[in-house]
Amino acid sequence: MHALGAWLICQGFYVLGVFVLGIVQGRCGWLEHEAGHYSLTGNITVDKHLQNFLYCVGCGMSSSWWRNQHNKHHAMPQKLEHDVDLNTLPLVAFNKEIGKKGNKTWLKFQAFLFSPVICLVVALGWQFFLHPRHVIRTKKYIELFYFGLRYALFYYAFQDFSFGNICLLYVGYTWIGAAYIFTNFAMSHTHLPVLKSEENVDWVRYAGEYTVNIESTFWVNWWMAYLNHQIEHHLYPSMPQYRHPIIAPRVKALFEKHGIPYVVHSYFHGLKLTYANLYEVGH
Length: 283
Prior knowledge:
Elements: H1 2-10, H2 14-36, H3 44-59, H4 63-75, H5 96-99, H6 104-107, H7 110-138, H8 141-157, H9 163-186, H10 203-209, E1 213-214, H11 218-223, H12 230-235, H13 244-257, E2 264-265, H14 267-282
Parallel strand pairs: 1-2
């Protein structure tokens, strides 16, 4: 997909080429996520190296930063002051407790700004400030090398373009990739209730009450890399993602037996809930 996207751009199909490159950047995000959970090959050392390459070269972001932050999310999803995925201000607020602390004028428009603007700002901020700073401070020189390799490869692929046009291509590439992956990730948690910092539930209820699944169809499974089975993923974060549909009926039966919610939305209903929540919180 990287080769196809670059070829399309060089042949003059700029919009289509940037779109393909953006989607494959998002696909690198899905794949590094699997490696970061050590479920890609099952060998932790190999998976760490693969994640370094996939995330740093494929997305321009730090794999060590991701492991630090994402594990905190998995420990206590949707819990205030514990789930780092709730620390989204000043750009966006996914729930009213967080929204109280934000800029009311900006948040009023967050539902309209989320995919076209906020996702891009977050991605560029991670790529050019937050993640390089983390890598330098923690002396992750392999990741720093991969950052350099990413930009060298991008420049080499489009060296016949002016520097300004290369920058425009890069921003478009990042915009599509960020909107693709961040919007899909948001569907699994962001419209759900939050736990107060002093409240606690067990591991199973964190998965059942504070995350939802998106329908399991061929195209959704590919588009969301099986992370549409978010309940199963939170129960078994080191399970290979493509195995989630296999255990889903057993998980559903277990939840129903014990009166725990097992919520599955269609893809477009999940999108509707995500944007409706952004609108409601913003107002």
